[in-house]
């Protein structure tokens, strides 16, 4: 007889639909575009292998991040508070969200995110900046390939309809390093309340696409349509891809932006690095005409990425940010 641990039992008890597992897409396979479309429609989330991002580059960035987060708190705090860029500790965003996490948030299209960093960390910042830049270029290339395969899979012309927004020199993309310290010993011992320590509260990402890589510590979970939470087994040599709110709108709801969160229940620290590929601020976010069938209406009112982002920063993490822009209000 198979005996499930309590968390595993609770997980299956709460699931009302059969979940076949996190979709895995091998980007080198000829049929990957079909699998990508299916994963974006069903979950808005999938894992990719054969991604072409060099493992030594990933490891180099990880070492830099570990070095930064190992500094005394008073040193790291000099690169904060986040405005929204810079070093942050526990507070996420401007509206009262907190998590068991410290982070560094950087913009990828100007050097402004590094300015306070550089003035504090001197030469060490230079190497850090070089590695972040190389890494961001590599993951952006992969994100663009995925977006082009998705355009092919959806039979959209031109195939760079999505990816050109990330390649635009004014693309408003963001890069984030999250460090979740090990759960405090006292809470590890107190298993009786069974409560999760929230590392990063549930939310959807506002941008087009997010590319996440973590070390081998678990914690990330995605929400299925029935509201159940599925743990994502970590894999440090693969990437996890999220559909963001903007891609949901551009596909008129065909692709779903996935709700996700991080629980920090581990005795090991979790380190994640996420590239959020966004459009230029002036870009109009609307369903692509090539995708609209027959008399199909847009599910969303028109807005620019500037308007969406501006509103996002007035919301709490768990809020449904797309609700305000839906033509028929969400129930
Ligand atoms: C609570 C917040 C943090 C966030 C801005 C917001 O007001 C709502 C969206 C949040 C989010 C989630 C995905 C990314 O981590 C992020 C950088 C983003 O673009 O939107 C964060 C924002 C943040 O941490 O500044
Ligand atoms: O750190 C993680 O694994 C995910 C964090 C996340 O979802 C985010 O920063 O938007
Ligand atoms: Fe996220």
UniProtKB/TrEMBL annotation:
Catalysed reaction, written as an equation: gibberellin A1 + 2-oxoglutarate + O2 = gibberellin A8 + succinate + CO2
Domain Fe2OG dioxygenase: start-end pairs: 170-279
Pathway named in the protein's UniProt entry: Plant hormone biosynthesis; gibberellin biosynthesis; Hormone biosynthesis
Keyword ATP-binding found: no
The entry's keywords: Dioxygenase, Iron, Metal-binding, Oxidoreductase
Entry's Gene Ontology molecular function annotations: gibberellin 2-beta-dioxygenase activity; metal ion binding
Record flagged with keyword Ribonucleoprotein: no
EC numbers, comma separated: 1.14.11.13
GO terms under biological process: coumarin biosynthetic process; response to molecule of fungal origin
Pfam families cross-referenced by the UniProt entry: 2OG-FeII_Oxy, DIOX_N
Function noted in UniProt: Catalyzes the 2-beta-hydroxylation of several biologically active gibberellins, leading to the homeostatic regulation of their endogenous level. Catabolism of gibberellins (GAs) plays a central role in plant development. Converts GA9/GA20 to GA51/GA29 and GA4/GA1 to GA34/GA8.
Similarity section: Belongs to the iron/ascorbate-dependent oxidoreductase family. GA2OX subfamily.
Protein name: gibberellin 2beta-dioxygenase
Naturally occurring in which organism (per UniProt): Sesamum indicum
Lineage of producing organism: Eukaryota, Viridiplantae, Streptophyta, Embryophyta, Tracheophyta
């Amino acid at each position: 007889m198979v005996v499930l641990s309590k968390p595993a039992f609770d997980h299956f008890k709460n699931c009302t639909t059969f979940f076949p597992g996190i979709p895995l897409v091998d980007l080198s396979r000829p049929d990957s575009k079909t699998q990508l479309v299916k994963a974006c429609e069903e979950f808005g989330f999938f894992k990719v292998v054969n991604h072409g991002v060099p493992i030594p580059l990933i490891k180099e960035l990880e070492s830099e991040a570990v070095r930064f987060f190992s500094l005394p708190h008073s040193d790291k705090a000099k690169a904060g508070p986040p405005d929204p860029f810079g070093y942050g500790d526990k507070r996420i965003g401007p509206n009262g969200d907190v998590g068991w996490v410290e982070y560094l948030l950087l913009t990828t299209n100007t050097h402004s995110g590094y300015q306070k960093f550089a003035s504090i960390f001197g030469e060490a910042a230079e190497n850090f900046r070089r590695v972040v830049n190389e890494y961001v270029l590599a993951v952006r290339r992969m994100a663009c390939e995925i977006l082009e395969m998705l355009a092919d899979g959806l039979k959209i012309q031109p195939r760079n309809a999505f990816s050109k927004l990330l390649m635009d020199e004014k693309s408003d993309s963001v890069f984030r390093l999250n460090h979740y310290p090990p759960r405090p010993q006292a809470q590890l011992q107190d298993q009786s309340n069974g409560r999760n320590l929230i590392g990063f509260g549930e939310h959807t990402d506002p941008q087009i696409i997010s590319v996440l890589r973590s070390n081998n510590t678990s914690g990330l979970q995605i929400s299925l349509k029935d509201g159940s939470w599925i743990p994502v087994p970590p894999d440090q040599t693969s990437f996890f891809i999220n559909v963001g709110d903007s891609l949901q709108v551009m596909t008129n709801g065909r692709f779903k932006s996935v709700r996700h969160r991080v629980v920090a229940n581990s005795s090991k620290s979790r380190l994640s690095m996420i590239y959020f590929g966004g459009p230029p601020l002036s870009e109009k976010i609307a369903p692509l005409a090539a995708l609209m069938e027959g008399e199909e209406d847009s599910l969303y009112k028109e807005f620019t990425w500037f308007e969406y982002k501006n509103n996002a920063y007035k919301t709490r993490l768990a809020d449904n940010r797309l609700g305000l822009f839906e033509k028929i209000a969400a129930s």
